[in-house]
TrEMBL record:
Its cofactor is Zn(2+). Residues 25-146 form the Alcohol dehydrogenase-like N-terminal domain. GO terms for molecular function: oxidoreductase activity; zinc ion binding. SUPFAM superfamilies: GroES-like, NAD(P)-binding Rossmann-fold domains. Keywords: Metal-binding, Oxidoreductase, Zinc. This is Alcohol dehydrogenase catalytic domain-containing protein. InterPro entries: ADH-like_N, ADH_Zn_CS, GroES-like_sf, NAD(P)-bd_dom_sf.
Length: 349
């Protein structure tokens, strides 16, 4: 079995690894159908995170169950599934308190954030692999109905669901919500799709990449070119920041209407200043966190089945395993790494 490793800065390579088998009765083995990269993978590849090579990459994929332990229920061999980027047992105190990112199951040495595709994956590896193990599979895995194109669900385990939870619940609470999104990758485009589908009266998409801005316009968002010192009126109720840098964060916080919510979804590796004086008057709520994907994944899959959005519009390219080590270095906004070539298809036009 092949697994794609982060070997060094800007160097990826396939390694031959043993085919995984369930190591506990609650585990399943998932064969990867397709996988995709997000900003975190790009940061790792560029060597700008504290994570040291080598380790297996990948935390966004859709797959097919090919093996499972005797205690796994609700699943069958051959089921297509979405896999949360974080591992979760569903039964410990943290998981029951809706905090699966800090799963504390004692029979697996989970780190602070039990994510695939990191040095702390504890033998579960990365999803840029032909197959991988999933613990507590009865709870963790969410079936993808046959009516859904598997490639449409490839990012459901992370960015697609994260973008849903950063927008839709807030918009549902805010009639005639105005939404602002700063973006530098595919996440912002997913957020724009969800916001428009949820009924936002305006979605302003801010970026500096002409390709992504063209996709945003096609989705139906209003676009604005990002530049340092950019300002907009403080009229936005739901704001999603996916751009790094102090200027981007300040821009978002100062664009907040009274009582607005700002969701920061990008990782800052250094502290940045906050315009607290202005924030005190706007009463803005700021949140910065990873997404506890498993909490929202069933609803996202239901929305895909209903055709609420078409995530495939966001795809930037599709390539096969042999091309992956080089193509992933190019870091387009939402590349699809195709493991099952029977699904070969061009990105949605």
């Amino acid at each position: 079995m092949r697994s794609l490793f982060f070997e060094d800065v800007n160097r990826l390579g396939w390694r031959d690894m043993p085919m995984p088998r369930p190591q506990a009765d609650h585990e399943a083995v998932v064969q990867t159908i397709a996988a995709t990269a997000c900003v975190v993978d790009n940061m790792v590849i560029k060597g700008v995170t504290p994570m040291e090579p080598p380790f297996a990459l990948g935390h966004e994929a859709v797959g097919r169950v090919i093996d499972m332990g005797d205690a796994v229920t609700g699943l069958a061999i051959g089921d297509v599934v979405s896999i949360p980027n974080h591992r979760t047992c569903g039964s410990c105190r943290s998981c029951k308190n809706h905090d699966p990112l800090h799963c504390e199951q004692e029979d697996a040495p989970f780190p602070l954030l039990p994510a695939y595709g990191t040095p702390d994956a504890y033998g579960f590896g990365g999803m840029f692999s032909e197959a991988f193990r999933v613990p507590f599979a009865s709870h963790a895995l969410v079936k993808v109905p046959d009516t859904i194109d598997p490639l449409a669900a490839v990012a459901a385990g992370d960015t697609l669901t994260d973008a849903w939870q950063a927008t839709v619940p807030h918009i549902r609470k805010t009639p005639e919500a105005r939404v602002l999104i700063t973006s530098n990758a595919g996440y912002g485009l997913y957020a724009a799709q969800w916001a428009l589908a949820a009924g936002a009266v305006e979605v302003l998409y801010v970026d500096d990449d002409p390709t992504r801005m063209a996709v945003a316009k096609k989705i139906g968002a209003t676009t604005l070119q990002w530049e340092e010192g950019l300002e907009v009126p403080p009229v936005y109720n739901v704001i999603v920041n996916e751009r790094q840098g102090a200027e981007a964060l300040r821009f978002c916080l100062l664009a907040a209407a009274h009582g607005a919510v700002v969701e920061n979804v990008v990782i800052y590796l250094e502290d940045v200043p906050f315009p607290l004086f202005q924030m005190h008057f706007s009463g803005v709520t700021f949140r910065s966190s990873f997404c506890a994907t498993r909490l929202y994944l069933p609803e996202v899959i239901s929305e895909l089945e209903a055709g609420t959005i078409d995530p495939r519009v966001v795809e930037s390219e599709i390539f096969t395993l042999d091309d992956a080590p080089d193509r992933l270095l190019e870091q387009s906004h939402k590349p699809i790494l195709l493991f099952d070539e029977s699904l070969r298809a061009e990105p949605a036009s």
